[in-house]
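Reviewer 2 asked us to include a model.

Predict the structure of this chain.
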Amino acid sequence: MRPAEPSSSGTGTVPAVASVQARAKPRRGLIDRPGIRFLFLAPAGASLLFGLYAATALLGFDVPPLADRLAASHGALMVFGFVGTLIVLERAVAIKKWWAFTAPALLGIGSLLVLAPLPTWIGRSAIVLGAIGLLLIYRTIWRRQAMTATAIQFLGGVNLVVAALLWLAAVPVAHLIPAFSAFLVLTIAGERLELARLSLRGSHPGRGLLWAALSLTGCVSLALSVPAYGYPLFGFALLWVVSWLFLHDVARRTLRATGLPRYMAACLLSGYAWLVVAGVIWLVGGAATSGPAYDAVIHAVLLGFTLSMIMAHAPVILPAVLRRPLPYRPIMYLPVALLHASLVLRVLFGDAWGMPSMLQLGGSLNISALLLFIVIAVVSAVRGPVDGVGRRPQKTSAPQIPSAPQKASAPQKAGA
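Predicted model (structure tokens):
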């Protein structure tokens, strides 16, 4: 979920790479064709659908019985198969190396193999290799330009490898949540630093965030080995990271803008708020591997934070990956509002107050919010580019119509 950035330094910025390609108009290779890239997204989509089906059943709705593997792999499917595949595919597109595309393929296919009637180690081994592939991608980015932001994202990738190895060793998914959370949070935090660094003062911008990232990664090991102390310390480190983001993220300024920049800022800041909720629960409540506290933290991170990031960056990232515009429209606020309102029902009333009906209602609306966003995104992509207020542009001059998305790139970058 990489934001658009005004950088041409080769640090893995998808929109920058895409714009250079558009100007040069090189001959497309096989891997650059939208249809081929869509094939890499297909396992992520399948993992999402399986994950949502599992969520529906786990909420207690009357659906056909779940296979044991699907029920036990719900969280891993969403992280490795869906979100992980999306993130790694975006990195592979950024560096444009053929070998890099094996990483998202291994993550996506491995997640589906886990559900197949095969030994589970086959799919889980593929996931481990895909996670290691992400580290190799970051190594390539680092060699092009060594930056603190890349180091923080690399730490996120390390946590993904840790989670994959532990799952291969049959560690229950409930104990992998700190590693999952560190992967997702540090990936986004590193990207946000790349945008904020131009406004930071001092000779070492981002040093505070790097120390927080190192602390968060270290606390993952503590949470696994000494849960009584590790989880509260992990919660403290998470709050440290979020505090830095709240203080320095450009989203605080672009929230006063209009259109896409304001939409992205609203998604980002609301996502950070859910990280605060998770951090406080871990800090105060300690280890949470079952029960209401567990449900609250995993959905605060995996839904409140992660889905907010996906919804924020989809209009920028998907066009770069699939080479098809995904114009922003104000109706995109609807699934965002539904997501956060349903999480309040689920976490505050369902989990905190022990109201099963609110837990079930909030969970069902969580699923509805994600599906609604997908429908809106597909319709927006099919309808094509829009002008600044969300209307389709008038066909007054044929040469001017194709250039509209390029002209909109500046505010998109500002809003990232």
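The CA atoms of residues 347 and 353 lie 9 Å apart. The radius of gyration is 20 Å. We have added this to the supplementary material.
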